[in-house]
Amino acid sequence: MTSIALFNNKGGVGKTTLVYHLAHMYQRQGQRVLVVDLDPQSNLTSSFLDEEDLSFLWDEYEPTFPDRQESLFSRFDLGGVWTIAQAVEPIIRGKGDIRSVDPLEMAENLWLVPGDLELSRFEDELSTNWTKGFGGDEKALRTTSAFHRIIQEARRRVDPDITLIDVGPNLGAINRAALLSSDTVLMPLAADLFSLRGLRNLGPTLREWRQKWEQFVLPWAPEGLELPTGRMAPLGYVIMQPGMRLDRPVQAYQRWLDRIPVVYDRFVLDTPTRSGSTEHEIATIRNYRSLMPLAHDARKPMFDLKAADGALGSTQTFVQTCYRDFKDLVEKIDARLARTVHG
User: Fold this and answer.
1) Are strands 184-189 and 233-240 parallel, antiparallel or unpaired?
2) Model confidence, pTM
3) Cβ proximity of 285 and 241 under 8 Å
4) Neighbour count for residue 299 (Cβ, 10 Å)
5) 243 or 228, which is more confident?
6) Using 50, 70 and 90 to split pLDDT, how confident is the model at 71?
7) Sign of the C-alpha dihedral, residues 335, 169, 127, 121?
8) Cα separation, 15 vs 10, whole angstroms
9) What beta strand segments (E) does 182-280 contain?
10) Are strands 104-107 and 162-166 parallel, antiparallel or unpaired?
11) How many CB atoms lie within 10 A of CB 326?
12) Which of 128, 175, 160, 184 is nearest to 3 (CA)?
């Protein structure tokens, strides 16, 4: 059971879209998938759930909404714990430890631990308890390890083959705890200056977090407390292409594209090089802008669009290309996982 956090501290690169489509493609390939939304903006959760289901989930249901017999939550006990924010609420209120989340089954073998905007309230707790946990303070470490323990409990419930974690675009305390809970980190990048600057900050920060966790936490960990290893192994990066033809990159795009391997090696892997080798580039995902509105309206992945969804003529050919691209991406990620985690 391997976990992958998808992270870039520069927003707007298509990270959440990538998580959503990877989750569905892994499921299409016969794997059991758990998706965890640790981004307080909860865009991934809103990709899976419509507004009415979200209103139930976040306890904002209005009786003026039209009745809908097929609402997702008509199948569930609303007294359960559904979101990450609900799970850590006892810690925020100083009333206890985490509560277990009931993952929502979005499709056969595909589960979601939903996000919630209320999760942002957890930031101060995580920030305050980070250094308090150095040396083994159990109360502080229960806060710092909350995400990890929630995810582990969810994994025990659904037994996934792969866990995908969506993380917000910053280097704050919530993301530190989120990334510590992951086995590997996959970085979606745009070929632009902002992604390069993000890599320069991201790599050293991950190494600092990993070093402090290994040096000041794990040796002093209280017996019986389930803590993450803090490995956060870099898995590689995926180029998210802008709205342009794949075989004709403009000069500015190519300029930044050529810089990414050097910056990744130097700042993420801490192995200075001038070779510009693309060995850590997993794939380039072309822009599917024409499919996105159809997929959003149909509430399904772009590669599942049918004629009834408006994918007609040449658009259906584009849908098939999208399916092949994401299938190929999943195979390449699995190959990286085999080398990074198991090799």
Assistant:
1) parallel
2) 0.92
3) yes
4) 11
5) 228
6) low
7) negative
8) 10
9) 184-189, 233-240
10) unpaired
11) 24
12) 184
